[in-house]
Amino acid sequence: MQHMKSKMSKKWILFTALFMVALSVLKANPNHLSKSKTETKMKDEKESIEAKEIHSEDAGNVALIDKLFIPAGSIDELLSQTKTVGKFIKTLPGLISQQAFESRDEQGNMTLITIAIWENKEALSKAKDAVQGEFQRLNIQPQEFIKRLNIKMERSIYNTLDN
């Protein structure tokens, strides 16, 4: 039982880490949710974050799918910084489910893929605002944190496909 709790806590921490990184991308382009079929790339001279945002007009569930590359030396700090925010995100309305998947290479670097299902774009937008407020309250600067840890990210937002 303790092992299962530990595994679930780790998955939640990984999801939170991703959500924190993803929100820093949202902060850079706050109007992205109102755009239709948008593709955005962020570049900073010393930072390598790639974000793909793909949207449609569908008002159904929204899947936030992120792929992060986290250097081995940054993993522990990323995970420890996201515990507090993770507890907060768990309380947000509109989050339906989440999953996190990890893989490590020979050097110990982590590739992290997370999938978060939100009720709709509005729920995701409200969650973004709430988490940004929590970052301010905790004095967390996500973009600086990502840059310092040299995290690379690809991000996509997908709507439910009607069949």
UniProtKB/TrEMBL annotation:
Keywords from UniProt, A to Z, are: Signal
* Superkingdom of the organism of origin: Bacteria
> Does the keyword Signal belong to this entry?
yes
The stretch of residues making up the signal peptide is 1-27
Designated name of the protein: ABM domain-containing protein
